[in-house]
Automatic annotation (TrEMBL):
Membrane-spanning residues: none
Pfam family, any one: Amidohydro_2
Keyword Lyase annotated: yes
The organism's taxonomic lineage, starting at the top: Bacteria, Bacillati, Actinomycetota, Actinomycetes, Micrococcales
The protein's name: Amidohydrolase family protein
Length: 362
């Protein structure tokens, strides 16, 4: 099993000070981060979670932040579920996308990447890292990819889904070019609502957290359509977009709509040679958390099968967040389980084949 969304954290953002460019240390030292001093919280967002963002039982015995204690994380997640690999997606760190100063934002992202490599990837062979970049300045983000993109345990480039514009826009093409050079997927994780990205819902700000959380998938729709329409996958044939925690049930009808409009208006984008759904099946991947549950649970699968989602879905637990999905209870068609729980992620992240893992473990 491969878990594609595990949120590692820190006891305090001050752990980044030793890794931060000296020009920006004073910013962090005096608390210039999104929210209260000591951590990037979720409290700077306009929507407050009524119960808290973390599982109550994920607080380690030491009392530190959930996700900050690797031995406890390993016991509660990796060991309990026999997970071969966990892809670390950070937590507060992707909130750099909400900062107005792109230079400071990328400095924080770079400091996090160095801290994560030294303190997490070196500590457990089951861990793989996401290279976090600040997309506000694509040139700086591309430079960060070229700085660390060849690290053997880095498996993707990660941004927040909350963005100033859709990620297929040519503004972001320097990031796609650098990802292509290192054959790294470009992943967008749900979030970033705050700061520069204060209205990630199409009609403007919503009122309640549950309402907002349910509708944030609209950012995933925009990025999916944009990357296809702007020809990202024609320009870089090895490019892959991974949408993390953006949901999956909306994908079939959106692709159906894109296919229909493209058939009628294809002269608008003459660089596209295939249907949007065909690009999606080959180049876009989706994590299972949250996996929507219809009133009739089996109603979801025919629509997903129609777009070939058995090749697109990858398991994610979202540990240690409040909406964690226990892999023992995830509902999947039996003939999809091996691909969704293991094979699809193993392929897109270029992880060793299962027999190699077993041999190393032995």
């Amino acid at each position: 099993m491969i878990d594609c969304d595990v949120h590692n954290s820190w006891t305090s953002a001050e752990v980044l000070l030793d890794y931060l460019d000296p020009a920006f240390r004073e910013y962090l030292d005096r608390g210039e981060i999104p929210g209260p001093r000591g951590a990037f919280p979720h409290a700077h967002r306009p929507w407050l979670h009524p119960e808290g963002f973390m599982r109550y039982d994920a607080v380690p015995p030491s009392g530190v932040t959930p996700g900050a204690d690797l031995p406890f994380l390993a016991e509660q997640l990796l060991d309990r579920y026999s997970i071969d690999y966990a892809v670390l997606t950070g937590d507060e760190s992707i909130e750099v996308s909400t900062l107005a100063n792109p230079y400071y934002a990328q400095a924080l992202a770079s400091a996090y990447n160095d801290w994560m490599i030294e303190n997490w990837l070196s500590a457990d062979p089951r861990l793989r890292g996401s290279l976090i970049v600040a997309p506000q300045n694509p040139q700086l983000a591309a430079a960060e990819i070229r700085r660390l993109g060849d690290h053997p345990d880095i498996v993707q480039v990660l941004v927040s889904s909350g963005s100033q514009r859709p990620y297929g826009d040519p503004f972001f093409h320097p990031i796609w070019e650098a990802c292509s050079e290192y054959d790294l997927p470009f992943a967008a994780h749900l979030g970033g609502q705050g700061g520069l990205n204060s209205t990630p819902i199409a009609c403007g700000p919503t009122t309640f957290f549950w309402e907002t959380h349910a509708l944030l998938c609209e950012t995933g729709m925009a990025h999916l359509g944009s990357t296809i329409a702007h020809g990202v996958f024609e320009k870089w044939p090895n490019a892959r977009l991974i949408l993390i925690e953006c949901g999956v049930a909306w994908v079939p009808p959106v692709l159906w709509r894109l296919d229909e409009d493209f058939r009628a208006l294809r002269k608008e984008t003459p660089w596209l040679r295939r249907l949007p759904s065909e690009y999606a099946r080959d180049h876009i991947r989706l994590t299972t958390q949250p996996l929507e549950v219809p009133n009739s649970p089996q109603a979801l699968w025919p629509a997903l099968a129609d777009i070939g989602a058995q090749d697109m879905l990858m398991f994610a637990s979202d540990y240690p967040h409040w909406d964690f999905d226990d892999p023992n209870f995830i509902r999947l068609p039996e003939d999809w389980r091996e691909a969704v729980l293991d094979g699809n992620a193993r392929s897109v992240y270029r992880l060793p084949a299962q027999e190699v893992v077993d041999e190393l473990a032995g």
